[in-house]
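Session log. Operator J.P. requested a structure for one protein chain; no other inputs attached. Running the standard single-chain path with C-alpha cell output.
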Amino acid sequence: RPTMFVTDSVSNLQRIETLIGVCWGLIVLKTFVVVWVVHHYAMPFSPMWVIAPTVTMAFVATSAYYWLRD
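Structure written below.
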C-alpha cells in the first residue's frame, strides 16, 4: 500500500514539472510575440518592460518550487 502513495507522488511531480515546462514554453512564445508587436507597430517603449517582469517572476516561482518540493 505505501508504494501506491509513492507512485502517486511521483506522478504528481511529473505532472507539475510538465506544467512548468509548458509554462516556460509559453513565456518564450510570448517573448517573441511581444518583441514582434513592439517593433511592427513602432510602440514607443522597450519590449523589456514586458519581458523582464514576466521572466523574473517565472524564475522566482520556478526556483521556489524546486527549492521547496522535497
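Operator note: The radius of gyration is 17 Å.
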